[in-house]
Amino acid sequence: MAQGTGAIVARPRPPGLPPILRRVVGGLAMPLGSVVFAFVVGGLIVAATGGNPFSAYAGLICGGFGIGCTQGENPALQISNTIVFLTPLIATGVAVALPFRAGLFNIGAEGQLLAGSMACTAIGIKFSTLPTPILLPMVLVGGMVAGALWAGVAGVLKATVGAHEVVTTIMMNYVAQWLLRYLIIGGPLQLASGTSKSLPIGPGARLATLLPSSNSLIVFGLPASVYRVHAGLFVAIAAAAVFAFLLWRTTLGYEIRAVGQSQRAARYAGVSVRRTIIVTMLIAGAFSGLAGAVQIAGVDHNLTDKYFSDTTGFDAIAVALLGLGSAVGIVLASILFGALHAGGSVMQSDAGISSNLVLVLQALILFSIAANFLGAMRSLIPGLRRPPGAPPPGSPAVALMTEAAAPPPEGTPVK
Amino acid sequence: MGQTRLRLFGLVAVALMLAAACGSSGPSTPAKQYKIGLVTDIGGLNDKSFNHLAYVGLQKAITDFNVKGDVKESKTGDEYIPNLTNFASTGYDLVIGVGFLMAEAVGTVSGQFPNIHFAIIDGAGTDAQGNDLKHANVESLYFREQDAGAMVGVISGMLEKQGKLKNNKGVISAVGGVSIPPVNHYIAGYKWAATMEDPGIKVLVGYSNDFTDPAKCKGIAVPQIAGGSDVVFQVAGGCGLGALQAAGQGGVKSIGVDADQKDADPSVIASALKKVDVATYTAIKAVVNSQFAGGALTFDIQNGGAGYAIDNFSLPADIQAEVTKVQGEIAAGTLTPPADIPA
Amino acid sequence: MTALSDILHLLVTANLWQATLTAAVLLLLPALGGVISERSGVVNIAMEGMMLTGAFFGVVADLAWHNPWLATGVAILAGGLMALVHGVVSIRFRADQIVSGIAINIFAAGMTVFLVNRIYGIQDVGHANQNELLPNFNVPGLDQIPFLGQVVFQQNVVVYAALILLVGVHIVLFRTRLGLRIRAVGEHPQAADTAGINVYLIRYGAVITSGLLSGLAGAFLAIGVSNTFVPNMTDGRGYIALAAMIFGKWTPFGAFVACMIFGLGQAIYDNNSIIHVSPYLLSMLPYLLTLVVLAGLVGRSSPPAADGIPYVPGSE
Lengths: 415, 343, 316
Prior knowledge:
The structure holds three protein chains of three kinds. Chain A is built from 15 helices and two strands. Chain A is mostly helical. The longest helix of chain A is centred in the first third of the chain and has 30 residues. The N terminus and C terminus of chain A are likely disordered. Chain B is an alpha/beta fold. Chain B has ten helices and twelve strands. In chain B, the strands form two sheets. Chain B has a six-stranded parallel sheet, with helices on both faces. A six-stranded mixed sheet of chain B has the order 7-6-8-9-10-12, sandwiched between helices. The longest helix of chain B is centred in the first third of the chain and has 20 residues. By secondary structure, chain C is an all-alpha fold. Chain C has a two-stranded antiparallel sheet.
């Protein structure tokens, strides 16, 4: 695309920054700007309703990162809680980001995660006597298969009859929730009559915690068992790496991106669009199901009614977008959202602000990314205006789905 | 846990509650300010049910004692452990978990912090199998909801038998939230007592699977009323308010739950009480007076922890007499409402 | 199978269908909004958030002013404002409309509880008295018709409004010039623009209308069916309305049929005091049914051609 034919306003380039750093800074600018925007507006909302935004955010930062805690909160504990919250977000973030690349919108990550949890629990209970080297892979693979099937339904419907995946995945979410209730209230996995939780999985199905789960060993001033960080973190990071590899270094990844860019062009190039859509959803579901299985194996060790109110799959949408669909971005965004989740309750007890403010912040981040407020604001500031003829900045979702062959506008990360 | 130990703690509870009610000792002035942490379950503080009541108990303690109270509302179930741990690790003198959904979480965290006092409403600190771990630093605050249910069951059964209610088909009903023990205890007592008073009575029981959305419980109540129910007993927290509303619109009577719900709807004639606020207050007071003891406290009709209130209604003398008589028999142990819903 | 015969017996009672219509209307209003919005080319999955916002502000207004009509007006406005945010973000800033819709839903969920905490403290929100609610109204004469009279003419005023709106939306969309313009903007905005139609105005209008309708549904839920606000009380109805809209191929009457099916599922389930089926498996039915319909009957159900694509003038 011709840059600035007849352009008079030359965009000032930061002098002397090495290109890679410029790309990183450019890449981070938009997500960071969105987060800042959200916190500023959130702070205004708190102030407008009579609260103190500074103590609210101090509480969030304390609870999320263990920094600046005023009530004697243990930093190691806060960080540990954040890590536990962020672990499932990585794989589910991938489960949303991968279909984005194919032009699909996977709102069903939550249902796929539940499917994975249910499969993991069922296998972990049924084969509870098997030892770890056999049972653990079984439950994790079982979770992946269940999640894949869950997403596969939506994928097949989309590929064959063109059913909109937003609706089919939302339906599958509800089916998963009701199936969960059926299983643990009066159903085959129930612990005991009248309870609403499942039997525990066998010890062989557990993912070990990083620190020994002992009440007597004292680490950082607290018994080691309070630190619930578990090996599932490594599984999650591995999943992110697999995602990046898959997308950029395999034929399938190329096909996925081609379909996302233009189904017609992909078809001309010999790519089977139908097959790609189905495979993409299957793989995405597998990632989500894996996240669910890891949660059971690493943290809960049983299915409980807490999953009725679980929001991981929806947080994952924000994570995928904030992370601009890249593996590194997703990990970073997961850290932020994990920290917000952990920070909310500290904010509530320390500053008296309802932890639901965290939801408001999340929504503001989403708005900002979706609308690319930062880009819009840039265009209002003289000197930073784009030269005429340059392509308008698209929303990141659009950018994720349709990578232009032309050099991307500044601000979109190039892999 | 033997009967005698239960009775002993029941006596302690009575003593403490009498002291609390009379306020005779007045606020003691310890030099130390006690920190009390309250962790709600996912119902949240505005659940119009026991989370709210626990908070009421905490507020009263803040007024009466030198106590600082903080609340963490759990938005999702995976916050139970972090919330409890946060309070325990920052040196709170008492960490209260509200609701039996937290049983396993309390079991885990109380094991990690043996020097911190814990209290849990409606449950015990358990392991993954649901077995009570019996940690010495955990005080379980149980309620015999069936006692309260029985009281209102007597009233309902007798009213229906006397044939002066609107539908007069020998039918009453209950709307449950989810089929879990605290809910089913209420319904069990209700059905048992109503059947005792009116052997031919039919008690319809439906579940909304929801504790928050009033429209859902209204939806359950409406067919019950159409099916002839003259008294609708709500056992569904905030959702159940819709059932009360349906009763009002259907011209029949209703019964509230947990707290006195006389203002919820004009059709409410009674409420089955579960004095979670008293229990919370009792637990806090024990800590303030350095009298905390692990184990189980049971709040029932005998020690006034479960009870009933008459609302918007003047109870005929004969029914009142019967209620008082049954109450006495349950307290004395000659009658025992079941914990599980009779067939 | 006694459960099946129980259900069959139930299906012939007027009570069941009366409850079905009420439940259906709670879905129909947002679904109509969705139809209008998407016909103009703006994807709208924010009905859930708009309805919840309407419910919340409706209750706040009713508790303050004790007047259900005024409160309903406030609720409608609140829904419209939320829709305006979605509109601005989607149309002016050309955001991805699905993301914006999700953001609205999360925002509404968090904001309403946050405000409950700020306005009412940690107290009860409180509830409106019987005479402060949107009233039921039996249409004189018509309500005596056997069966149909109870089902259709012994309902809340909002139900009647919804049925009138159903017909109205259909007529406007398919029989008026305005409707033609809306649909043109949704199918081929560039051509519409060339023909002199103000694409942005039409789209903003359509999105805001969807917010107004969702706000009305929220008012009905909070101060018609219930009498208070409870966090997340909309409970996914906005998403089901979305499914109903697609089910109904983006037409008002099609969506209505779908809403009736979902309402029927809810009404049958509500009878679980009398019929004994596993409540959880029963609850799955409406969703499975939607999937079946999407797979089989509906076939290639296609939205308006320019649905979801931000309009950029001259970018054909």
